[in-house]
């Protein structure tokens, strides 16, 4: 019989619990847990950007054949280099160069396990004691989860719904101080479905330059636009301000489970190299994991040979879905959509709880929607409340789902 008075020296890492509490996955688990096991209807999962389970969003045959060819070649069964397979890095550079006024090389590319790991690398590389980072509100909460784990302070700038969810540029300078190191721009927008113009992104770049901070450009939904505004990569402004561009094949090729992403130093002036950020990126990757080598081996064929008609089909389907969603929302009195989505796979909607019976807040709405209709959506206000409980700085916002 074990001595019950024994004092064990170990305990769980509470930082992980706090970081997880403000993640989309953590809140989605709450909502999904409320699904009725007796409901014969299929679940409609609208809570994350993964439409791969729907037949209309199957990836290209080019991508599938590239994976098969990479496996059959037997060239990609071993460990990959820390920064990624050279042929993959070259292919990613060539793919991104189509939209840039200068040329990236393989040395500017770091292959990651999806865009999530690229976020982890970026936040770890820029962190230092007392540092803070500017994040959009609303935004992708994984940044806050990682910042909480890294002890990187967060300050929020608002996205303006009446201006198509543009950045409140005037407020950024008031938020920043001598400890501010970076600003995150998500374009196309998650969760707002916004797409920023060239002029607006240039204004953000010039503001960041004035403040002496770098830009982390989350472009995982790059080129997934279906409105009047085309996608403009932030890297275009790399000569104005250093940019860490993050992306992946997850969304455009509809293969989030393949976990192949990248972090790119869009910095023709070499400022990131001189400041030690590049060395920190490599340092993080040296103590982290890599995406599967055979998927890296398939990347050149995927990026170079996928036909435009595949991308067009995805865009047309997304636009049809966005139009139906927006029109449907307008018919529901308790829901308001400030801006019709023009990109990504999300839309931000305001919920008027006062028009509903027996609904206390957005989480309650989402949980009951899951139980009664088998529909999964994300309660943004609940994510904000959880964030307030685990972070020691101010926050505010409207009730949105």
Automatic annotation (TrEMBL):
<dbReference type="GO" id="GO:0006572">
    <property type="term" value="P:L-tyrosine catabolic process"/>
</dbReference>
<feature type="domain" description="Aminotransferase class I/classII large">
    <location>
        <begin position="43"/>
        <end position="388"/>
    </location>
</feature>
<dbReference type="InterPro" id="IPR015421">
    <property type="entry name" value="PyrdxlP-dep_Trfase_major"/>
</dbReference>
<dbReference type="InterPro" id="IPR005958">
    <property type="entry name" value="TyrNic_aminoTrfase"/>
</dbReference>
<dbReference type="GO" id="GO:0030170">
    <property type="term" value="F:pyridoxal phosphate binding"/>
</dbReference>
<dbReference type="InterPro" id="IPR015424">
    <property type="entry name" value="PyrdxlP-dep_Trfase"/>
</dbReference>
<dbReference type="InterPro" id="IPR004839">
    <property type="entry name" value="Aminotransferase_I/II_large"/>
</dbReference>
<keyword id="KW-0663">Pyridoxal phosphate</keyword>
<feature type="modified residue" description="N6-(pyridoxal phosphate)lysine">
    <location>
        <position position="251"/>
    </location>
</feature>
<dbReference type="Pfam" id="PF00155">
    <property type="entry name" value="Aminotran_1_2"/>
</dbReference>
<dbReference type="GO" id="GO:0005829">
    <property type="term" value="C:cytosol"/>
</dbReference>
<dbReference type="InterPro" id="IPR015422">
    <property type="entry name" value="PyrdxlP-dep_Trfase_small"/>
</dbReference>
<dbReference type="GO" id="GO:0004838">
    <property type="term" value="F:L-tyrosine-2-oxoglutarate transaminase activity"/>
</dbReference>
<dbReference type="InterPro" id="IPR004838">
    <property type="entry name" value="NHTrfase_class1_PyrdxlP-BS"/>
</dbReference>
<protein>
    <recommendedName>
        <fullName>Aminotransferase class I/classII large domain-containing protein</fullName>
    </recommendedName>
</protein>
<comment type="similarity">
    <text>Belongs to the class-I pyridoxal-phosphate-dependent aminotransferase family.</text>
</comment>
């Amino acid at each position: 019989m074990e001595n019950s008075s024994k004092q064990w020296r170990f305990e769980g890492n509470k930082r992980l619990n706090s970081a997880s509490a403000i993640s989309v996955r953590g809140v989605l688990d709450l909502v999904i847990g409320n699904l009725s096991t007796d409901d014969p209807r299929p679940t409609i999962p609208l809570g994350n950007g993964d439409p791969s389970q729907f037949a209309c969003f199957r990836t290209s045959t080019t991508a599938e054949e590239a994976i098969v060819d990479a496996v059959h070649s037997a060239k990609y069964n071993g460990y990959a280099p820390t920064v990624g397979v050279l042929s993959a890095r070259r292919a990613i550079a060539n793919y991104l160069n189509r939209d840039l006024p200068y040329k990236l090389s393989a040395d500017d590319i770091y292959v990651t396990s999806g865009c999530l790991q690229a976020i982890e690398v970026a936040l770890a590389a820029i962190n230092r004691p007392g540092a803070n980072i500017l994040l959009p509100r609303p935004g992708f909460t994984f940044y806050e989860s990682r910042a909480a784990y890294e002890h990187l302070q967060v300050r929020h700038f608002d996205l303006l719904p009446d201006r198509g969810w543009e950045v409140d540029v005037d407020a950024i300078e008031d938020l920043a101080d001598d400890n501010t190191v970076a600003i995150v721009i998500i374009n196309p927008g998650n969760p707002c479905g916004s797409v920023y113009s060239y002029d607006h992104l240039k204004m953000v770049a010039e503001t960041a330059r004035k403040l002496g901070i770098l830009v982390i450009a989350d472009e995982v939904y790059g080129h997934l636009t279906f409105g009047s505004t085309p996608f403009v990569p932030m890297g275009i402004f790399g000569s104005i301000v250093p940019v860490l561009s993050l992306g992946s094949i997850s969304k455009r090729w509809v293969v989030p489970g393949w976990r192949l992403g990248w972090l790119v130093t869009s910095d023709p002036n070499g400022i990131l190299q001189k400041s030690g950020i590049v060395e920190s990126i490599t340092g993080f990757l040296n103590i982290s994991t890599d995406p599967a080598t055979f998927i890296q081996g398939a990347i050149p064929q995927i990026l170079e040979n996928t036909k435009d008609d595949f991308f067009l089909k995805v865009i047309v389907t997304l636009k049809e879905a966005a139009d139906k969603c927006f029109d449907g929302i307008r018919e529901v009195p308790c829901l308001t959509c400030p801006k019709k989505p023009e990109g990504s796979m999300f839309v931000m909607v305001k919920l008027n709880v006062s028009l509903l019976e027996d609904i206390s807040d957005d989480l309650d709405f989402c949980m009951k929607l899951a139980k009664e209709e088998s529909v999964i959506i994300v309660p943004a206000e609940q994510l904000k409340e959880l964030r307030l409980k685990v972070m020691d700085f101010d926050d505010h916002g409207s009730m949105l789902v």
